[in-house]
Amino acid sequence: MKFLLDFLFRVLQLFTEPYFLVFLAIVIIALLKRKNKCKNLRIGVFIVTVIMVILIGNGFLGKLISGYLQKSYIRISEIKNTSAQNPIIVVLGGGVVDIDNTEKLHTMSYSRMVTAYQLYHEYRRNNQPCKILISGKGRGHISEAELFSEDFKKMGVPDSDIIKEDKSMNTYQNAKFSSQIINRMNPSSLYLVTSGFHMKRSVALFQTFGLKPIPQASDFIDTEITIFPNSYNAAFTFVMLKEVVGIWQVQLYNIFGMNK
Q1: Which position among 42, 97, 105, 256 has the lowest Cβ density within 10 Å, counted as fewest Cβ atoms?
Q2: What are the backbone dihedrals phi and psi of residue 116, each rounded to the nearest 5 degrees, phi first?
Q3: Among candidates 83, 80, 85, 90, which has minimal Cα distance to 187?
Q4: What domains sit in the chain, N to C, each tagged with a CATH number?
Q5: Extended strands (E) in 115-254
């Protein structure tokens, strides 16, 4: 059952890839062209393709998805008075890039780092203990957790307040492996730091493993309504579409108890 659903969602993820959608439309039109009786259907496929390009490229679809993914976290992400004792701040890795054989954190990682540090600083300036758990291995030679750790130390966070979870390769594993560490530490409260568009799925997965994180979205993305389609809107729309499919996958797997 799980294998079948994994395959289904892998196929569904293809429909969030722009090149695949264009390729699919071309193939369908080419196949239909071989049958003269399908002229109206070819025209229909072409019109649907054009409409989708417009909706994705002019920012309309992205604007709707952006609200669905992020609206709930805009106000809750504002750092308020910290009163919880012995909290853990979980920061999810945002990827690693390799430039000229030098591995650096992806640009999304830095907003997450700043948000985590701001929250950590609120506790420390009141002389309250606080830990930062960095979750993520990434696909480079150096783990995201290690790269995050190096930068946190430069910001003044002592090594004793940093916990590295450097095995996870995706959000599901972020939640699974982090939960094992968190349950052993039994903190009074748990904060989860990641990008706004990524928060809904992340929270759902952490809840799957019995945790109740307080979301702290580090950054938000949105599209701009434009007359003419552009690549900016298209890029962010497809990123958010992938998240929507991922959320559906989490919800369905939870129904069948397949996320443990």
Answers
A1: 256
A2: -65, -40
A3: 85
A4: 2-57+229-255 (no CATH), 83-217 (3.40.50.620)
A5: 131-135, 162-165, 190-194, 214-217
Residue type, 64: L
At residue 153, does pLDDT exceed 80?
yes
Q: What is the mean pLDDT of residues 208-234?
A: 95
**This prediction's pTM:** 0.91
pLDDT of 197 above 70: yes
CA–CA dist 122, 93 (Å, integer): 22
CB atoms inside a 10 Å sphere around CB 137: 22
Reply yes or no on whether the pLDDT at 87 is more than 60.
yes
Tally of CA atoms within 13 A in the half-sphere of 165 that contains its CB: 25
What six digits make up the tokens of 131? 């830990």
Q: Which residues contact 188 (CB under 8 A, 6 or more apart)?
A: 84, 85, 86, 87
Q: What letter would DSSP give residue 78? A: S
pLDDT tens digits for range 5-21: 888 899 889 888 888 88
Handedness of CA 182, 6, 106, 237 (dihedral sign): negative
- Estimate the share of the chain in helix, then strand, then coil, as percent rounded to the nearest 5: 60, 10, 30
